[in-house]
């Protein structure tokens, strides 16, 4: 790859002393060398900042850091990082994973191919992940397979607005997508969901089905833990009336309606409106269920969809919603 433009790597840290050094090492040995690592520490009370300072002394031309006097929270900290970086290409990194040495090179190659086809659009490249435990012992060779994500290579708005599957720690985006996603909605609870959704609506995505990140699962993960990944999902539990439906307890419905007002594409509006009805549990249960299937708003997994059918039938959510 002759043209190697500068890539900003954004790392939002908070009490990350256990694994941060390993992750920074994996960023610094990338085969794609033209990088600038921006670290924003969210008022850590452990040795995180000391680890960052030592790395910055060793790599003063690669690492730049700031410290939040007040804790902003994970989402706002990433928003801050996005706001300050001016590079054309931006990669997001968690503080506790390990990147494959060729991750950035492979993603930049895919990004350049996307640009040849869609030069003036917001663009995003993401990948699968290998799932490991605290000691880097392999749990699964594919996060997509483990979570039953079956994302299509072409535009797949239903999958993105529902299950998503775009993990922030694999995202590489261009500056045009950054401008689309900022500012984050006030109610946002998951930043990678918002970034992926904006790209699917207004830009183009490239999914690399090769695992390019060793995704470390531990009990303090922001998005996943071993408890969540291996939560018992017996059929009898699915029939229990207190089982939660997927994503109904997220903040998605708080900002989705505003997003709908910005969309002009008729087919996209059908997908978004169907999902909005589900999030607000409006209409008959059967109509909601069949809309979820019609627009691929739930995982393309037969077992999951059968269980979901009974969840919708037996949930108390409908009665609760009618009382509000």
């Amino acid at each position: 790859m002759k043209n190697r433009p500068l890539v900003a790597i954004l790392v939002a840290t908070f009490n990350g002393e256990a694994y941060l050094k390993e992750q920074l090492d994996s960023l610094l040995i990338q085969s794609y060398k033209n990088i600038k690592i921006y670290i924003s520490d969210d008022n850590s009370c452990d040795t995180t900042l000391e680890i960052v300072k030592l790395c910055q002394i060793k790599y003063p031309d690669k690492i730049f850091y700031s410290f939040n006097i007040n804790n902003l929270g994970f989402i706002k900290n990433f928003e801050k990082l996005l706001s300050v970086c001016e590079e054309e290409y931006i990669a997001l990194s968690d503080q506790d994973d390990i990147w494959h040495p060729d991750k950035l090179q492979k993603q930049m190659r895919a990004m350049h191919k996307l640009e040849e086809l869609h030069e003036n659009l917001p663009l995003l490249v993401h990948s699968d992940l290998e799932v490991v435990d605290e000691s880097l012992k392999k749990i699964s060779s594919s996060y997509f397979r483990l979570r039953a994500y079956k994302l299509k290579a072409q535009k797949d708005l239903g999958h993105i607005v529902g299950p998503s599957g775009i993990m922030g720690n694999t995202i590489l985006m261009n500056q045009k997508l950054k401008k689309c996603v900022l500012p984050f909605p006030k109610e946002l609870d998951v930043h990678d969901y918002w970034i992926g959704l904006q790209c699917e609506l207004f830009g183009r995505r490239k999914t690399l089905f090769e695992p390019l990140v060793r995704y470390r699962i531990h009990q303090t993960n922001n998005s996943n833990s071993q408890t969540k990944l291996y939560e018992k999902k017996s059929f009898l539990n699915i029939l229990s009336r207190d089982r939660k439906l997927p994503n109904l307890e997220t903040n998605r419905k708080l900002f989705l309606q505003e997003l709908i007002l910005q969309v002009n594409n008729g087919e996209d509006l059908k997908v978004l409106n169907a999902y909005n009805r589900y999030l607000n549990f409006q209409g008959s249960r059967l109509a909601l269920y069949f809309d979820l299937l019609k627009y691929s708003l739930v995982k393309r997994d037969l077992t999951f969809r059968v269980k979901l059918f009974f969840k919708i039938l037996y949930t108390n959510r409908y009665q609760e919603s009618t009382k509000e």
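The chain has 15 helices and nine strands. The longest helix spans residues 103-117.
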